[in-house]
Amino acid sequence: MLLGLGLTEDDTHLTEHAAALDAAWRHLADRLDADEGQGSVRVEADRDGRAHIRVDRLGKLEEPPTLTALKELTSRMLPRIHLPELLLEVHARHRVPGRVHPRRR
Questions:
Q1: Is the pLDDT of residue 90 over 70?
Q2: Three-state SS string across the chain, please?
Q3: Residues 69-98, mean pLDDT to the nearest whole number
Q4: Which residue, 55, 27, 59, is CA-closest to 43?
Q5: Domain ranges of the chain
Q6: Does residue 67 have a pLDDT over 80?
């Protein structure tokens, strides 16, 4: 199988990747420890000892002024409609039956 992947029996390739992965996990753990008390993210072990990353719900962020301005702009661009009138127009154009019954099986 190693030959199919272009690897030799020398395990330096796998050792390098294992070291990089270990370093990434340690970096993540250090950052989580530094944020303790603000803790919306934590690593927990299950009964089998496998690690799981748990993320709590985040609080609502304030909307930036640019988003508020964009919402106002798009709201002004959209036509004002009344839902009953829209439904009647769709009904008239597509000749939808007056009543729609669910299929009986």
A1: yes
A2: CCCCCCCCCCCHHHHHHHHHHHHHHHHHHHHHHHCCCCCCEEEEECCCCCEEEEECCCCCCCCCHHHHHHHHHHHHHCCCCCHHHHHHHHHHHHCCCCCCCCCCC
A3: 85
A4: 55
A5: 12-55
A6: yes
